[in-house]
Amino acid sequence: MTQTVLEIAELQLHFFTDKGVVKAVDGVSLEVGRGEVVGLVGESGCGKSVTSLAIMGLIPQPPGKVVAGSIQFEGVDLTKISQKELRKIRGDQVAMIFQEPMTSLNPLFTIGNQLIEVVRIHRKVNKSEARKQALEMLRQVGISREGILDDYPHQLSGGMRQRVMIAMAMMLNPKLLIADEPTTALDVTIQAQILDLMKNLNKEFGTSILFITHDLGVVAEMCDRIVVMYAGQIVEQTDRFRLFRNPKHPYTQGLMNSIPKLEDKRERLYSIPGQVPNPHQMPSGCRFAPRCEYVMDICRVSSPELLAVEEGHLSRCFLHQEVKEVATTST
Amino acid sequence: MISYIIRRLIMLIPVLIGMSIITFSVVHAIPGDPARTIVGDKATPAQIQEIRENLGLDKPAYIQYFTYVKDILRGDLGTSLITKQEIAKEIKPFLAATTELAVVAMLIAVFFGVNLGILSAWKQNSWFDYTAMLIALIGVSMPIFWLGLMEQWFFAQELDLLPSNGRLDPRMEFDAITNFYSIDAIIQGNWYAFQDAILHLILPAVALGTIPMAIIARMTRSSMLEVMRSDYIRTARAKGLGEFWVVYKHTLKNAFIPVLTVVGLQLGLLLGGAVLTETIFSWPGVGRYIFDAINARNYPVIQSGILILATIFVVINLIVDLLYAWVDPRIQYGKGD
Ligand SMILES: Nc1ncnc2c1ncn2[C@@H]1O[C@H](COP(=O)(O)OP(=O)(O)OP(=O)(O)O)[C@@H](O)[C@H]1O
Ligand code: SF4
Ligand SMILES: [Mg+2]
């Protein structure tokens, strides 16, 4: 058993909006081990970004608030410590890269300025030393062009900017790197390069990665373990091999079917029917029930729990759970 | 940057030509015989002839125009009809007085406006934010002359704290060198005069700076709020950067770009406001100089005064544009290329 770097337990994160409370994260528990790459997968709006921002302490507050649960990082509960203590950790021990490389760098400061800043926030080093470190890190992410430090973000392509973002995140050799859809905005060849780069960094530096994506194909390539989220909850969680060989939850199966396959000559791609539920009106039973092809009566009245279907494989579905005592109400 | 500056300077040429045509036409827009209108009904033909020659009205229009431009380029702004002095020389102290007033007013407006805006955005929806924005709202809707009179009544009359008129205590011995009194006082090491000059500046500068301050404060606040929502601010926070630097480094620099436009515009409008302020506070500036010239139908002075104000306006805009390019690296490489 590897040591855990990150352990989220029963996290509840709500947004208090004018239209009511949105339970964007509703009882999420997950772990990331040392050197492990964990994939967090799910459709748009299921709460992936919000979960990751909660780890960083970057949830806009108000309207957002962690109302219950804990986020243990190296034995420290990040939900309990002050902003000041949190600032010491983020950027240094936990770093994050974002989906939008085009807008994630400040347009008015040079690449060098922005890279050096990370070092100078957390370490007592002089400018020229920090510059050296920045150049070295850029080389690690595959940019060795002369003068890059004096360039402004608008002079770089999207792929280059994402490399810079990765370099920035890796500057201080963090224990945990959170990557929120780092390749979604990039075209396919660049995407593959960035994934390769992240895999290498994971191997070389032993950095644990929480990799967020809605693309199961990317997950298959990158991740040791996979957590599938739906409507603010985890619906399935297991290692890569089991998930792809034997997906249990109907939602995961639906996601698998929507991966385009080369031999498949059908005109249209499969997609799960229906839409993610409106966060203001969650279905009362299983949240996936309105879209599920295996839906049973009990699914509409009672919420399944996340239980082990086999060793190291969790799923939140009545299909493979003993239905204890028929639900409280009968319809 | 150099090539950008050169480009901007070249773009100035048509603007300057247009401006000179307009000011040139000021005299020619007078209905009937300008010379007769200028001197009035009781003038003798000899007097009218003198005016005509003085203004070069006896030659064809295009020659007059070229003469006019040539004179300007040589620094000759004509002669005042009243004092018979060279306008270029005569206007200097007035110009210095206006510039000093406008600069101080703008410094007040920018300093307080920008900082109020920053703090309001930073502490959005706090009592500070509400108070500051209420003040800004009142400031925007305050007529200058009313504010000026209230200031005079309260600070000068009731409290007897600040002088209400002029640039200096008239009893003071003082040699003007640059005609920027505060600077002159420093040059001469006359601490007492410096103090007095600053005290005289406060009320008119506040009257003149209040509206721009309020507008700048609102603009800064909304611009800051917008930038604070952007991805790169989230990145800055994700680095572990402290909130002070997030606000004053990453947010402010970006938020300042639209504020800069407003500052430039307000500085231009301030010249208009200066005429009013100068009248209320008996401030011997260009506004007063032109105002008096209008009353006296002193056309050469009106003409040159307008030309100078317009030139200042154009130069301010040029400076704002260059500041843009300096703050925002994207501009020099952008569409302008
Ligand atoms: N500032 C906010 N105010 C109110 N609700 C919010 C806010 N931010 C996020 N949410 C809610 O949280 C839910 C989860 O959003 P999140 O951004 O985590 O989705 P995601 O899984 O990352 O989706 P995507 O794939 O589109 O990035 C959304 O349904 C949204 O309604
Ligand atoms: S619990 Fe029922 S509705 Fe929900 S996924 Fe399982 S079968 Fe489908
Ligand atoms: Mg997201």
UniProtKB/TrEMBL annotation, chain A:
The organism's place on the tree of life at top rank: Bacteria
A molecular-function term among this protein's GO annotations: ATP hydrolysis activity
Main localisation: membrane
Membrane topology: Peripheral membrane protein
Keywords assigned: ATP-binding, Cell membrane, Membrane, Nucleotide-binding, Transport
A single cellular component GO annotation: plasma membrane
Stored CDD domains: ABC_NikE_OppD_transporters (cd03257)
Signal peptide as annotated in the record: none
Name of the protein this chain belongs to: Peptide/nickel transport system ATP-binding protein
NCBIfam families reported for this sequence: oligo_HPY
Annotated localization: Cell membrane
GO annotation terms (biological process): peptide transport
All copies of domain ABC transporter, residue ranges: 6-256
SUPFAM superfamilies reported for this sequence: P-loop containing nucleoside triphosphate hydrolases (SSF52540)
UniProt family annotation: Belongs to the ABC transporter superfamily.
Name of one Pfam family that matches: ABC_tran
UniProtKB/TrEMBL annotation, chain B:
Family: Belongs to the binding-protein-dependent transport system permease family.
GO CC aspect terms: plasma membrane
Membrane topology, from the record: Multi-pass membrane protein
Record-given protein name: Peptide/nickel transport system permease protein
Protein's cellular compartments: Cell membrane
Alphabetical keyword list: Cell membrane, Membrane, Transmembrane, Transmembrane helix, Transport
Organism: Croceifilum oryzae
Domain ABC transmembrane type-1: 95-324
A Pfam short name: BPD_transp_1
Record keyword Cell membrane present: yes
Transmembrane segments annotated in the record for this chain: 9-30, 101-122, 134-155, 197-219, 255-281, 301-327
Lineage: Bacteria, Bacillati, Bacillota, Bacilli, Bacillales
GO BP annotation list: transmembrane transport
